[in-house]
Amino acid sequence: MHILSRNNEEASSMHRVCYITNWSRYRSGEAKFEIEFVDPFMCSHIIYAYATVDEQKPEIIPIQKDDLEHYRELSLLKRTNPNLKISIRLGGKVSQYTRYLKHSKMAAQLVRSIIWYMATHGFDGVDIALEFVDGDNPEDKVALTTLIEELAKQKRLMLRSMITLTAAPFVENLLKVYDIEKIGHLVDYINLMTFDFYGPWDEKTGVFAPLYHQHYQVEAESLRNVDGLVKLWLSLAIPRNKLIIGIPAYGRSFALSSRQTSLHAPANGPGYPGRYTKTRGFLSYYEVCEKGQSQAWQRIWLDSEKAWYMTNGDQWITYEDVDSAALKVKFYA
Prior knowledge:
The protein is of the alpha/beta class and 333 residues long. It folds into two domains: 3-193, Alpha-Beta Barrel (TIM Barrel), CATH 3.20.20; 252-325, Chitinase A, domain 3, CATH 3.10.50.10. It has helices spanning 67-80, 94-101, 104-121, 138-153, 174-177, 180-183, 226-235, 285-292, 322-332; strands at residues 3-6, 15-21, 45-53, 60-62, 85-90, 125-128, 162-167, 189-192, 243-247, 250-256, 267-270, 282-284, 298-302, 307-312, 315-319. An eight-stranded mixed beta barrel has the order 1-2-3-5-6-7-8-9, surrounded by five helices.
């Protein structure tokens, strides 16, 4: 679950947007996460990930066989808290959608399918979070713009519904991927993925979600931080109250390739998988906490980055915790 926040100028409280995955219920033991575990008053908005587009026809389909049951369970949360807003996230590679969106008839079918899907399953909004594999493909950029434009035209059929965009932490290729001038005013909010600026795909360790620009960040890299990415979107005329910053409830792990254990130590790929999530280079927050209880791990605060990291032997973990998350909320309040 990712917690996101935004500066709400129209209300006394901040929006707290929570992200729930449809695969977390398949984890074993204490890591198994069910919809019934959600406090319906903890989040103002929930984004459920995710649905995708059919490979054979322009229709939205669920990912997991039991997603429809999840939808029913989500609707029960709204009975307890009628003010709760729940959106379905559309995921997958943008190219899967481009093949339909470049043809007007199929684009119309796809948009009608999204509207039907939302209405049938009780969603208040749709969050568009498509994966760009090749940022240099102009067809994909046009397709995303078309999708948002066509959905916006149909908002009269979706009373009080929301259209949101989850934007990847692009810095160098931002304008190659998003037509911000056209879509910025059409979406209700933009969920900024203000994390994964660095990770085990790099050749040295790095803080994956630094709050501010660091002296070692030069040129375009100077924007690879929460403050920098927010300022970049603001410079493109997106109102501050439309931007939601992301706070990751997980960590990224590196395998060290030398005896160095400091920030920017040489790394050689992802660290060991967690006991529950079983994914190299990724650890849920509860897995990080579990490791932190052992004296074998050294925990270090980086005051400049406003972030923690932990190290033990050849393992190095950058992660978010209550301290660093609180600073980000305060930064954007």
